[in-house]
Amino acid sequence: MANGDSSDLPSLNLVESMSGLAARSVNNDSLNEMVWLYNYYRDYVQWYESAKTRLQFSVIDTLDQWQLLERYKNNGLVKGYVLYSVDTSPGNLHTFRFKMNHSVNVATVAASVYNGVLISEELEAKVQKWAYHFYLMLGEKRSLGILRI
């Protein structure tokens, strides 16, 4: 179980990308744990409790995003990260906006292909210490390229 701030979109994207990698690994029989991003919305709590009873799983740990990232980096699930820019265009989150930055969409696909996580430019300094990482530069004024895998 991961604790995260659901109002912090870069952190949420990071945890959700780890959740996707964990789910794929469970489906491939290479991991036996899933990630649940806990929040306090009544419907989610009810669904979680129902799923816990129905599937008979137990919580093995509660981690913050950085602890979970370290865990999955150390066990080889996460191979690196894909850098993206947070969209700051004015307007509602889930609507098309003029001059919208779509780099998170491209980064999501790349992260899935390369077994990476989503890292916003704001969070990059916290993960640059990794010995092995890949890095996709995404955005209007930057070129697209893989540097190290």
- The total of beta strands comes to 5
Structural class label? alpha/beta
| N-to-C SSE string, H for helix and E for strand | EHEHEHEHE
Task: Provide a count of the helices.
Answer: 4
| Low-confidence segments | 131-149
- Domain module count: 1
Q: Biggest β-sheet: count, sense, barrel?
A: 3 strands, parallel
Shape: globular
Strand content: 5-15%
Mean of pLDDT:
80
Distance between the amino and carboxyl termini = 28 Å
Rg is 16 Å
Q: Strands, helices and their partners?
A:
Blueprint: E1 2-3, H1 9-27, E2 37-38, H2 42-55, E3 63-64, H3 65-74, E4 80-84, H4 103-114, E5 116-120
Parallel strand pairs: 1-2, 1-3, 4-5
Structure overview:
The model is unreliable at 131-149 (pLDDT under 50). Helices cover 37% and strands 11% of the residues. The strands form two sheets. It has a three-stranded parallel beta sheet. Strands 4-5 form a two-stranded parallel ribbon. The protein has one domain (2-126). The chain is globular and about 45 Å long. Strand 4, helix 4 and strand 5 form a beta-alpha-beta unit. Helix 1 (9-27) packs parallel to helix 3. With 149 residues, the protein is α/β, with parallel strands linked by helices.
